[in-house]
Design goal:
There is one protein chain. Helix content is 8%, strand content 22%. It has 60 residues and is mainly beta. It has one domain. Strand 1 and strand 2 form a beta hairpin.
Length: 60
């Protein structure tokens, strides 16, 4: 999985992956952190041409 964690945009506190949208400390928005080196063209090349083809890059 390419999503590694969540990080607060304001205070930089890290959180585990999950369904969380705001920081407990400063109430800032959380950004999804990705492991981009783990994703390459081969990851998507053999998949059906749908929205879910890029599942690893979706912030869900």
């Amino acid at each position: 999985m390419a999503r590694t964690s969540l990080q607060c945009r304001e205070c930089k506190k890290d959180y585990e992956n999950g369904f969380k949208y705001i920081c407990d400390e400063c109430f800032g928005p959380l950004d999804v952190k990705y492991d981009f080196p783990a994703i390459n063209k081969d990851t998507f090349s053999n998949r059906e041409h749908t929205y879910w083809r890029y599942f690893e890059l979706l912030p869900i």
